[in-house]
Specification:
Layout (H helix, E strand, L loop, with lengths): L26 H25 L6 E3 H8 L3 H9 L6 E3 L3 E5 H10 L8
Antiparallel strand pairs: 1-3, 2-3
Helix pairs in contact: 2-3
Length: 115
Amino acid sequence: MARAKRHPDPAPSPALPPAAVALVVDQASLRPLIASIVRETITALEADRAQIGGDRFCWSEPEAAGLLGLREHQLRDERRRGRIAASGIVGRRIRYTRDNLLEYLARRRIGGDGT
């Protein structure tokens, strides 16, 4: 019976050198950078809010569906199943508040909390 030919072990990879650079930064010198980043972030957040009706407090069913990336009939079905809250206004029209939409998304979260 012939034995399988054994290949020699590959050469061990060279060890990585220890870190050659240490970075020491004074906290006071970081403050302007942090303040600048916070300002930019807030500005971007306000621009995003303005894009989705930052001053509005409610949306029609077609508008709310668009914000959630759904079709109107899908959102209507979710409302009828009791999965999302909404308000009825004059003329049997349906309106969704920002809280209605955020609560719906929060209840349907995937991951992060073990679900």
